[in-house]
Design a protein that fits this description.
Layout lengths: L13 E5 L5 E5 H5 L3 E7 L5 H13 L1 H6 L4 E6 L3 H8 L8 E5 L4 H6 L2 E3 L7 E3 L2 E6 L2 E7 L10 H7 L1
Parallel strand pairs: 3-4, 4-5
Antiparallel strand pairs: 1-2, 3-8, 6-7, 8-9
């Protein structure tokens, strides 16, 4: 399957998260992104060094600036279970705007064509690192990394595109 690209409509799919009442919820990607300007960014794994020290903190630090430029939602997707993402989100007490969404079986990641096979490292199927700027379900910017790189998918890269 070809990776999602500029001009494509993002597929719908279900992702999981814990709400403010600590209840496990499923959300449709289209329900959260329809009619909105949304950043969907993904990391290969929660608690991994580049993801935890660079990628996620960048979006948390730049969230107000992104929102001032018209971004309605900032969504972090990881191929981990929702319990892991809940614990990971708690390591960012300063976070007010980034939502952590679990794609436990990589189903949504596969529908984007952005899976990354890290089986040789004992990590199974994960997501490539990427950042998509989506406006009313249509991809406007698709910054997709090769392998484990972190060169084009930062919050600053999305800010430059806005």
């Amino acid at each position: 399957m070809a990776p999602i690209a500029v001009g494509d409509v993002i597929p719908d799919g279900k992702l999981a998260y814990f709400d403010e009442n600590d209840q496990l919820q499923q959300i449709s990607v289209h329900s959260i992104a329809s009619g909105k300007k949304v950043i969907l960014f993904a990391v290969p794994g929660a608690f991994t060094p580049t993801c935890s020290q660079k990628h996620v903190p960048g979006f948390i630090e730049k969230a107000e600036e992104l929102k001032s430029k018209g971004v309605d939602e900032i969504l972090c997707i990881s191929v981990n279970d929702p319990f892991v993402l809940k614990a990971w989100a708690k390591t960012y007490p300063e976070n007010k705007h980034v939502k952590f969404l679990a794609d436990g079986s990589a189903t949504y990641t596969h529908s984007l064509g952005l899976e990354l096979d890290l089986s040789e490292k004992g990590l199974g199927i994960r997501s490539r690192r990427f950042a998509l700027l989506v406006d009313d379900l249509k991809v406007k910017v698709a910054n997709i990394e090769s392998g484990g790189e972190f060169t084009v998918s930062s919050a600053d890269d999305i800010l430059k595109a806005l």
